[in-house]
Design goal:
Elements lengths: L9 H48 L6 H16 L1 E2 L2 E2 L7 E7 L4 E3 L10 E8 L4 H5 L8 E14 L2 E7 L1 H7 L11 H8 L7 E4 L16 E2 L3 E3 L2 E4 L2 H9 L12 E2 L14 H9 L33 E10 L7 E14 L24 E8 L9 E4 L6 E5 L2
Parallel strand pairs: 7-13
Antiparallel strand pairs: 1-2, 3-4, 3-5, 5-6, 6-16, 6-17, 7-9, 8-15, 10-11, 12-14, 13-14, 14-15
Helix pairs in contact: 1-2, 6-7
Length: about 400
């Protein structure tokens, strides 16, 4: 009978033979994990650096590329880390240019007449892996991630073409007359929660209203571009269309200033041109290029109340608050887009507006006078059904990571 051969110690031999394989697999797994971690760090750094660059670009008026490069390079090195060290992003990996949302492309060539609106950043690293070094790759694995941050203009789907004076809002909220300062948001929140009578303002169409009545200032009409993406100012038709149907045109400003709508001489209603245009369009136009429902529904004279189509008194719409710094081009300094209830619109001095709080007169105001109730400022949080991100003119902006 054949004796069985002893197999004692064979497992140890197999383990010894496989140990190298196990270590190799473990090294590969560790390398892959490290590369994934570094890739994530590079992407985070690129995202943050692009947003930082866009934030810097948003406030510049010249020297765009050099100023953004310097700021981003320093900021990335002092605030971000990758592969266990400070993240270094050289100026050659930072581009200032133009983002076109319609085709989702970035270019360093900026369209004529525009200013840069986006920053592209590339973050690179060369992590060295254990297995890679075991097989002689000591230079590390070249990794790169990129990001593009866009300065998007937030266009309300319906901002009316009237600029209310900023001064009375500053006086009521901040308690002073410094129109160079922004509103104190804590005080504004408290103000917005007071009674409507405390938030009601009478805004005249003329600088000097008739004797016997007082107003809180004069409104100004601003000149709209001819289309959602800008273009030539087109005058009466576009102005009326923005009142009757909004026309999807935002405030004509480059995050700061806009142009005053010319109002020379007397219009067909016997008042300033923009007053006549407003009076003719505010309750709708039935035919022609400016046809649309308008803002208000009026009842029999002398009731000046602005009703909704369903008969509710007061129509809430978006109207800007601004400082007027001159005449013509860049003469309006836009401050805020406000959610404002249009309580009354005076079409005749005999019109009566019961929303005007006592003891102020209810009538006697010139044609074109608005009686408005401040409701709130446009939220910095986008409303998908009301707000549009584009390169169209707007006085509100948002920094967006687009790639």
């Amino acid at each position: 009978m054949r004796r069985k051969r002893s197999r004692r110690g064979s497992t140890l031999v197999l383990v010894a033979l496989m140990l190298g394989v196990f270590m190799g697999v473990a090294a590969i797994a560790a390398d892959i994990g490290r590369f994934y971690v570094v890739t994530g760090e590079l992407q985070t750094g690129a995202d943050a650096a692009a947003l930082k660059g866009a934030a810097v670009l948003q406030r510049l008026t010249s020297n765009y590329a050099s100023s953004v490069d310097d700021s981003v390079t320093l900021w990335a090195r002092t605030t971000n880390r990758s592969n266990g060290d400070s993240l270094v992003i050289p100026a050659t990996d930072i581009d200032v240019g133009w983002w076109d949302p319609s085709v989702r492309t970035f270019s360093t060539a900026v369209p004529a007449g525009q200013r840069p609106n986006a920053v592209q950043v590339r973050a690179s690293g060369n992590p060295r892996g254990v297995f890679a070094q075991m097989i002689g790759r000591t230079g590390g694995l070249a990794l790169q991630r990129s990001a593009i941050a866009w300065i998007a203009n937030i266009s309300s789907s319906c901002t009316r073409p009237w600029a209310l004076p900023y001064l009375p809002l500053v006086q009521r909220v901040n308690g002073n007359s410094d129109t160079t300062k922004d509103l104190d948001m804590g005080k504004f929140t408290a103000y917005a929660n007071t009674l409507p009578s405390n938030r009601t303002m009478v805004i005249s169409s003329v600088l000097n209203p008739p004797s016997g009545v007082t107003t809180d200032g004069q409104w100004t009409a601003f000149n709209l571009p001819s289309g959602p993406n800008g273009g030539a100012n087109s005058g009466q038709t576009t102005f009326e269309k923005q009142i009757t149907s909004c026309n999807n045109i935002a405030v004509n400003s480059n995050a700061a200033n806009g142009n005053i709508q010319p109002s020379n001489g007397k219009g067909p209603c016997g008042n300033g041109t923009v007053v006549c245009w407003t009076s003719g369009a505010i309750n709708g136009i039935s035919g022609g290029p400016s046809a649309g429902p308008g803002v208000c529904t009026f009842r029999a004279s002398p009731d000046a109340t602005c009703y909704t189509s369903s008969g509710v008194a007061g129509v809430t719409t978006d109207i800007t608050y601004a400082n007027v710094t001159g005449n013509g081009s860049n003469a309006i300094d836009f401050k805020y887009v406000g959610q404002t209830t249009l309580a009354c619109y005076i079409r005749d001095p005999a019109d009566i507006c019961n929303a005007i709080p006592d003891p102020r007169p209810k009538k006697g105001y010139p044609e074109g006078t608005f009686v408005v109730i401040t409701e709130g400022l446009k939220s910095p949080i986008l409303n998908p059904s009301l707000d549009v991100l584009s390169n169209g003119p707007s006085n509100r902006q948002r920094l967006v990571l687009v790639q």
